[in-house]
Write a structure and sequence with these properties.
The complex is a heterodimer of chains A (312) and B (364). With 312 residues, chain A is mainly alpha-helical. Chain A is built from 15 helices and no strands. Chain B is α/β, with parallel strands linked by helices. The radius of gyration of chain B is 20 Å and the shape is globular. The chains are: A mainly alpha (312), B alpha/beta (364). Chains A and B meet through α2, α4 and α13 of A and α1, α4, β9 and α15 of B.
Chain lengths: 312, 364
């Protein structure tokens, strides 16, 4: 939407054409809108049937008293009441938000130097390094999570290495099965995803600006702090969101390495749907989570225009 | 109650799709035996791949199996019940005993005419009774297995000898328990000396507190068979609670120093069996299937290959000596005296267990 609006607005620049030309462009604009409509139709249908419709169904479900039978369909607010009264749900939700926030921050902090190197220093090796960065993502997500069990387990690689180097005398208490293990694993998994938007953003920075800063006597650190970092802000925000949003709902990683105190809201939502067969409660939890995730999204989209990232 | 396959994770997605399409797949019309038999089954039992578990049936239909039988698979009991509840018309379904009453109460099954089952008398009354509701037989018990404590004897400072020993601080952070509301609840009730299937609200509160007290000892929750194997073999978990006898058998074969306990409160045992859909008209084939399943040679194959218990005790002489010993089949009196069979649950009981488990998992 905003991209189309931009095209219409753009002619107001210094080289804008007289009126007749403008009308032609508008016609073109209309024609392409039609073509775009055809092109995005499958996506729209897809989103409607697999996102909007399920969301509506879930909202309806959340007011039911049970999952299956006719008498279960009576309207009730009791699921919402239970959510508000049960401290364990709220605690779990806060834990999920906190873990997701930490994972997002760590991923971005670790991904930034990577993206910076790729954009400014890698030069001819850029493509090679980019491929190397993406290659791990070709392996199954599950496999990469399980790999951390091999690394962090009590007869795992980390413990063996420490023993070999004589840094410890006996095996360390197990590092796995804790919130920390969840964070470590997820940060590892998300780093490439966090690096890409930052990299794309950095690449678009006009090197002339940095040269100019150097000519005017700025130290590299000053130039970075006052030019590169502010200009890469949209990339950073996008990376934070790319990591934060899927992490809030994660349930595979906590189930595999989270242990007794590292379970997240996603695990309980899955439990409610798949095993407790309490679909209404699962729906309430999912909807509450959605609201909690949408809030920061709306806030940041006010701060940064995300679409700015995707334009040339 | 059994191996949780990765497809279980896809379940919510599949459900949405199923609801969207109104899901009426496999609804057989009344043409009787010309229709293939649709079986809602755990993975790992399809006769197309494991003909030995249903020998008379597979011998008879041999090369035409594909025309007489069709399968749909599930990863856990909740998934199977959901599927049946939302209108999936399988002729036969293979749930485990905690779930049987839920099927019967929801009107999903028809009573079984046991006179049509040639091998019915081989099944002991104790197992038959589990499948009886409102004076009718609704389930043919087929396979069963133990839930007990699997212990790495070389790692524990001291051998536990009861479910209550799980709370002993010397095992701190070295116990893996099943991520299952029912199993967590039942072992805690047993440890407290309560009857798990007959509790008061106060006792439920006690069970919840006791489960919360177990958390410092818990290393992790396990979800499927391979996890039991890995947790025990890696030494991460000294004790795996509610492990099955097959995991013990395999670890023993690999040379690990493991023990499979007879806890003071008794070993738990799950029993699974087949029920016939209330709307099924494909009864001739269904009974043929059931009869083949409980035929002694089929049951012996199940015991020998999966190390699972089987319901037809006439098959006991046909299994390997080690398997019989593993299953405690060598002394049937103590077998029934020391085994606590899971009991059918009502919907209220199941929800109460789930709510307790949710709170325990959510706790710090």
């Amino acid at each position: 939407m905003s991209a189309e609006a931009d095209v219409v607005r753009r002619p107001s620049g210094p080289d804008s054409e007289p009126t007749p030309r403008k009308r032609v462009r508008l016609n073109e604009q209309l024609r392409t809108t039609g073509q775009v409509g055809v092109m995005i139709a499958p996506t729209t249908l897809w989103l409607f049937f697999l996102l909007v419709l399920p969301l509506i169904m879930m909202t309806l479900l959340s007011f039911r008293s049970g999952s299956f039978t006719a008498e279960d369909s009576a309207f009730t607010l009791s699921n919402y009441q239970r959510f508000l009264q049960d401290a364990s749900f709220q605690r779990l939700m806060l834990r999920s938000l906190w873990v997701a926030l930490l994972v997002a921050l760590y991923s971005v902090v670790l991904a930034y130097p990577l993206a910076y190197y790729l954009a400014f220093r890698a030069k001819r090796r850029q493509n090679l390094l980019l491929t190397l960065l993406i290659i791990p993502a070709w392996t199954s997500f599950l496999l990469r999570v399980l790999a951390w069990r091999i690394i962090l387990g009590s007869d795992g690689m980390l413990n063996s290495l420490l023993l070999l180097l004589g840094l410890t005398q006996e095996t360390l208490p197990i590092l796995l099965y804790s919130p920390t293990a969840v964070i470590v694993t997820l940060v590892y998994i998300w780093i490439p995803f966090a690096a890409l938007p930052i990299y794309v953003n950095l690449q678009r920075i006009d090197l002339g600006l940095l040269e100019g800063a150097a000519d005017l006597g700025a130290t590299p650190i000053q130039a970075f702090m006052r030019i590169t970092l502010p200009l890469s802000m949209p990339g950073i925000i996008a990376a934070l969101l790319f990591v934060f949003i899927p992490t809030v709902g994660e349930y595979v990683t906590p189930a595999l390495v989270g242990g007794p105190s590292g379970q997240l809201i996603g695990n309980i939502i899955w439990d409610q749907f798949a095993r407790a067969l309490n679909w209404p409660m699962g729906s309430v939890l999912s909807l509450m989570m959605l609201v909690l995730v949408l809030l920061p999204l709306l806030l940041t989209s006010r701060l940064v225009r995300l679409s700015g990232l995707l334009e040339g | 109650m059994k191996k949780l396959s990765p497809t279980a994770y896809l379940f919510p997605i599949v459900m949405v799709a199923a609801v969207l399409t109104g899901c009426s797949a496999g609804a057989g019309d009344a043409t009787g035996a010309t229709e293939p038999l649709l079986v809602l089954e755990w993975t790992g039992y399809q006769m197309t791949e494991f003909p030995q578990f249903f020998q008379p049936f597979t011998d008879k239909y041999g090369d035409n199996l594909d025309q007489v039988i069709e399968y749909s698979f599930f990863g856990d009991d909740a998934e199977a019940l959901t599927k049946m509840q939302t209108g999936f018309e399988a002729d036969l379904v293979h749930p485990c005993n905690s779930w049987w009453q839920l099927y019967v109460n929801a009107g999903l099954l028809q009573p079984i005419d046991t006179s049509r089952l040639e091998y019915w008398d081989g099944i002991p009354d104790e197992l038959k009774q589990l499948g009886q509701f409102n004076g009718e037989q609704y389930i043919v018990p087929w396979d069963w297995g133990y839930d007990s404590l699997l212990v790495r004897a070389d790692l524990v400072p001291e051998m536990p000898d009861s479910w209550a020993d799980l709370w002993d601080p010397q095992y701190a952070r070295h116990i893996a328990i099943w991520d299952s509301a029912e199993q967590g609840y039942v072992i805690t009730a047993l440890a407290l000396g309560l009857d798990p299937w007959n509790t008061t609200p106060e006792e439920d509160e006690m069970i919840k507190q006791k489960l919360l007290d177990l958390k410092p000892n818990v290393l992790t929750y396990w979800l499927d068979f391979t996890e039991v194997y890995n947790l025990s073999s890696s030494g991460d978990a000294w004790i795996v609670a509610n492990a099955w006898q097959d995991a013990y058998g395999y670890l023993l074969d690999e040379g690990y120093d493991v023990e499979y306990l007879d806890p003071a409160e008794g070993r738990l045992s799950w029993v699974c069996g087949y029920g016939i859909n209330a709307n099924s008209t494909n009864l001739d084939l269904a009974y043929e299937f059931l009869n083949a399943a409980i035929a002694p040679e089929s049951m012996a194959a199940l015991g020998n290959e999966y190390l699972y218990g089987f319901s037809n005790f006439d098959a006991i002489p046909l299994v390997d000596e080690n398997v019989a010993k593993l299953l405690n089949f060598t002394d049937l009196d103590t077998f029934f005296a020391n085994t606590v069979f899971y009991q059918p649950l009502t919907e209220e009981k199941r929800q109460a267990m789930s709510d307790i488990w949710t709170e325990v998992k959510a706790a710090q």
